[in-house]
């Protein structure tokens, strides 16, 4: 996994995470008034030599806690309930 923390005129902060054929970008952007901020999570996936498909999720600060709770709960459930079954399949 590759991580790069940067900032530029468009972003207050940016982190890139490479994960196989996908790259995730976590960007903190200022609102137009520059008095507030939000997070943009982008998934970029290569399709072909020069083409990429991108999906974006905009996350506003009033939703950070709910988002983190839901994500953490989901990951915990997957690790507890599903990964063991995949790693150690039950024989029938």
Question: What is the count of helical runs?
Answer: 1
On the 0 to 100 scale, the average pLDDT is 88
Shape: flat
| Structural class label | alpha+beta
Radius of gyration: 17 Å
Q: Level of helix content? A: 25-40%
Proportion of residues in extended strands: 35-45%
What's the helix-strand series?
Answer: EEEEEH
Poorly predicted regions are none
**What is the total domain count?**
1
Please give the CATH class: Alpha Beta
What does this structure look like?
The protein is an alpha+beta fold and 92 residues long. It has a single domain (3-87), classed as Nuclear Transport Factor 2, Chain: A, CATH 3.10.450. The protein contains 1 helix and 5 strands. The chain has one helix spanning 64-87; strands at residues 3-6, 11-19, 22-30, 37-46, 52-60.
Q: Descriptors for this entry?
A:
92 residues, alpha+beta, Nuclear Transport Factor 2, Chain: A, flat
Helix/strand layout:
Layout: E1 3-6, E2 11-19, E3 22-30, E4 37-46, E5 52-60, H1 64-87
Antiparallel strand pairs: 1-2, 2-3, 3-4, 4-5
Summarize it:
It contains 1 helix and 5 strands, in the order βββββα. The protein has one helix spanning 64-87, and strands spanning 3-6, 11-19, 22-30, 37-46, 52-60.
């Amino acid at each position: 996994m590759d991580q790069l923390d940067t900032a530029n005129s468009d972003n207050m902060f940016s982190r890139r995470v490479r994960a196989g054929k996908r790259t995730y970008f976590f960007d903190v952007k200022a609102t137009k008034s520059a008095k507030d901020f939000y997070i943009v999570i982008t998934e970029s996936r290569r399709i072909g030599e020069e083409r990429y498909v991108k999906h974006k999720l905009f996350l506003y600060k009033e939703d950070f806690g709910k988002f983190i709770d839901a994500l953490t709960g989901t990951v915990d459930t997957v690790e507890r309930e599903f990964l063991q079954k995949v790693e150690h399949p039950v024989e029938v």
